[in-house]
Structure formats: structure tokens, C-alpha cells
Amino acid sequence: MTPDIQTDGPLDRAFAILDFVAAQIKAVTAAEIAKNLDLPLPTAHRLISNLELRGLLQRAAGTKRFVVGNNLVTLAGKTIGSAFRTARRHAVLQNVAVEIGEQCEIGIVRNTAVVYVDSVRVKAPQSLQFDPGHSAPLYCTSTGKIYLSMLAAKPREKLVRALHLEQHTDHTITDPELLLRVLEETRRNEWARTNEEFVKGVVGCAVPILAPGGTLIACLGVSVPVARVSFDDLQNFREPLVRAAKLLSETILETNEATAQSDA
Length: 264
Description:
Layout: H1 10-23, H2 30-37, H3 41-53, E1 57-59, E2 66-68, H4 70-84, H5 87-100, E3 103-110, E4 113-120, E5 135-137, H6 142-149, H7 153-162, H8 176-189, E6 192-195, E7 202-210, E8 216-225, H9 235-263
Antiparallel strand pairs: 1-2, 3-4, 3-8, 4-5, 6-7, 7-8
Helix pairs in contact: 1-3, 2-3, 5-9, 6-8
């Protein structure tokens, strides 16, 4: 049983602002924040200014509108990474890696790059290994493709056209139009594949790990030498990855329910 606490103090209002801005698909003005949260405009301006000073909010380029700040994105990434580094979730990752017989990893998106927060290797490494802390570009990794595909159409196109599509291999997609078509297909199929797009000789695939409300929080993927598994044969990994991702999602729901019960 938790003690009674104030629920309308400055900290509560600051968190409400962050939650509201993070839920939007476009930048918002201070007036919009104040109106939606029923805050006096001067109060909203003061809180927004403090959050902006701390890098938790920032102005969209060339406007007076606000989006989440880089420090908030970094904090969110660290929080998600920490949440997945638990014994039970690592066990789920271990089990699917053994079932598939290849390295499996959990990746999140942080500052327009994919960062891997946990991985399990079941065979001796032959090529690129996505170990915890390793990062990779959004556009040529399966996890990055899922993240981009789940954005609304306009923000997705804007981000794709803003990315520096560097050529890593002969298979890297550097044409924004082609990448957008691939992302639309990824969105329809609800999983992603990469065909030697980041490192020559390595193919991979990933499926989304969703929060109870359907929000993407991470991806579960596999990376494998093409000498051992062809791009087309990645299809065989989809079902076990989807099952494992569902288990990982359920552990998040169970954690939320346990927290709610402890607070009752």
C-alpha cells in the first residue's frame, strides 16, 4: 500500500507534458499542450522551458513547436534496455536462440540508430555479431526497418529522406523511394528481413516486441551467415521469433500487473 501523494504538482505536470508530446505524431505548440492538459498557458510555458533546458523537449527545426528531446530519447533507450536485461527475458531469448540454432538479439532504436541490448550466441561466430552495446544504422537492419515501418506515413517519409543512406555493401538500399516501398511491405507483413545490406555475407530478420497497448518497444531478431542460411530460408525463423516476441510482450504485461497489485 503506497502512501497518498500529491498528483497535481509540478513534477506530475511535467510528466504529463512529456507523455503528451511523446504520443503525438507531429510537433506541438505550447498552446496545444496547455489546452490538451488543461494547464494555464503561463504554467505550460514555464514547465516546457524547464524541460527544454534539460534536453527532455526540444523545438522542431525552424519552428516554435516542440518534440521530444535527445536526452529523453536516450533515457527511454536506457530504460528499455535495462528492462530487457532480466533473467526471465534473457531465458526467453536463450530458448529461441537454441530452437533456431543461431544468434538472436533484442534491439531498440536510440538517436536514429539501432542499439542491441541483449543477445545469445549458440554457435561459434563466423561473421558480424550484434552484441549488447553494438549499434547499427536504421535503414539496413531488420530492427530499424520495423521501427521505420511503424511510423505514420508522413513522419516515416520525412525521416527516410533525412537519413544519410550510406552504401555499406552492394545490397544496401540507398534509394529513398525503394526504401519507402520496402518499409510499406514490412508494415503489411509485420516483420522485416535484410539481405547482406549492412555487412556482406550476413542476412537477418526481426519481429516487433509490443507493449500491451500495441506500441513498439523493441525487436527480436536473428543474424546469420548467408553461407549457412539463405535469404529465402529466413522465412523458417519467423514463427519461432513471433512466439518468443509474444512471450516477451507478456512478461512486460505481467510486470505492469504485479506493480499495480503492489500499489493497491
